[in-house]
């Protein structure tokens, strides 16, 4: 019996951005959900080159059996992580349409890339994609991120991609925030100690799913350079707090909050502007655009990174 993939409905209102004020107001009170991807997700998909028979391949993945131990381990971990994915959002609550779609996409990916399988963090990224896209499109957008944007390197055994990005972040901190770099060095703080969750979830563990559209927009446009700028923007906001910290616990405290609820997300934003409560995610993204990094040097580092050794091959 074919697995039904037509129950999922996108939750965003991106397509209303160009509508009249009266249409937007009406939809706020009488929401109308659709199963087709929004305009932004459609634009993202153009960068991912899905196959012509994308739906057919996805359906076959869902229906095909796979009995490897890797797949069994993946499905077990997926089931544990479903309830941890944006727990404040009703659409991803237990037995919801959103949770069912999230399960199917993650199961399908575990078959598609059976060597890698599912790794924690993927759930936040896929859920954020589902907020804006059809189930089939969300699957191929995730494949695009993994294959075209080098996201897969992060999840490989020994985590070479994580090492790559954290080394680059540390270089940028040395260049752009030398006082923060000195404080980190004095207390032996590596970027892996605070940025791992950010990178594994593309900030999905920090940014609410309703706000992830701007993160995804920028990532599909700028790639990892955006992520580096965003990290620097966060650290710059917290620079005074970091420099005043007396030990590693006080340094990591603001950076290592487990952001699982709206209350914690708001608290994190308050920390970023010293408790004033005036900064939002869009403002933080705008600030990240002003971070000056050498794009050509970043590309050089990426081209010369050895996934096998986890090191840069620079002469």
Structure description:
This protein has 18 helices and 2 strands. Helix 5 (97-112) crosses helix 6 (122-130), helix 9 packs across helix 10 (178-186) and helix 13 packs across helix 17. It has helices spanning 21-29, 39-45, 54-63, 69-82, 97-112, 122-130, 135-147, 152-155, 160-176, 178-186, 192-200, 212-222, 224-237, 239-244, 248-252, 262-272, 281-289, 295-303; strands at 305-306, 311-312. It has a two-stranded antiparallel ribbon.
- Overall mean pLDDT: 90
Q: What's the CATH class of the largest domain, please?
A: Mainly Alpha
Q: Return the string of H and E elements.
A: HHHHHHHHHHHHHHHHHHEE
CATH topology of the largest domain: Cyclin A, domain 1
The poorly predicted ranges are 20-32
Q: How is the biggest beta sheet arranged?
A: 2 strands, antiparallel
Structural class: mainly alpha
GO molecular function: GTPase activator activity; small GTPase binding
Domain Rab-GAP TBC: 34-223
Protein name: Rab-GAP TBC domain-containing protein
């Amino acid at each position: 019996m074919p697995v039904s993939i037509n129950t999922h409905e996108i939750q965003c209102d991106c397509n209303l951005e160009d509508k009249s004020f009266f249409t937007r107001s009406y939809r706020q009170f009488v929401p109308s959900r659709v199963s087709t991807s929004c305009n932004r997700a459609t634009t993202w998909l153009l960068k991912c080159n899905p196959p012509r028979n994308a739906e057919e391949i996805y359906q076959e993945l869902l229906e095909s059996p796979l009995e490897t131990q890797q797949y069994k381990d993946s499905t077990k971990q997926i089931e544990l992580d479903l309830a941890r994915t944006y727990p404040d959002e009703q659409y991803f609550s237990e037995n919801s349409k959103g949770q069912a779609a999230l399960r199917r996409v993650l199961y399908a990916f575990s078959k598609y890339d059976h060597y890698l399988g599912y790794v924690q963090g993927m759930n936040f990224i896929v859920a954020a994609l589902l907020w804006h896209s059809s189930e089939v499109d969300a699957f191929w957008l995730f494949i695009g991120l993994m294959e075209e944007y080098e996201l897969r390197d992060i999840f490989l055994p020994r985590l070479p991609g994580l090492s790559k990005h954290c080394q680059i972040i540390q270089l940028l901190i040395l260049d752009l925030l030398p006082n923060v770099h000195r404080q980190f060095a004095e207390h032996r703080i590596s970027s892996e100690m605070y940025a791992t969750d950010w990178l594994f979830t593309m900030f999905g563990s920090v940014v609410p799913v309703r706000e992830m559209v701007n993160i995804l927009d920028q990532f599909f446009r700028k790639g990892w350079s955006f992520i580096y700028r965003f990290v620097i923007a966060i650290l710059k906001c917290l620079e005074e707090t970091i420099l005043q910290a007396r030990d590693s616990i006080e340094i990591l405290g603001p950076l290592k909050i487990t952001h699982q609820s709206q209350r914690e997300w708001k608290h994190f934003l308050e920390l970023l502007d010293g408790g004033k409560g005036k900064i939002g995610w869009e403002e933080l993204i705008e600030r990240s655009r002003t971070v000056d990094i050498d794009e050509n040097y970043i590309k050089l580092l990426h081209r010369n990174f050895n996934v096998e050794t986890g090191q840069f091959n620079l002469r």
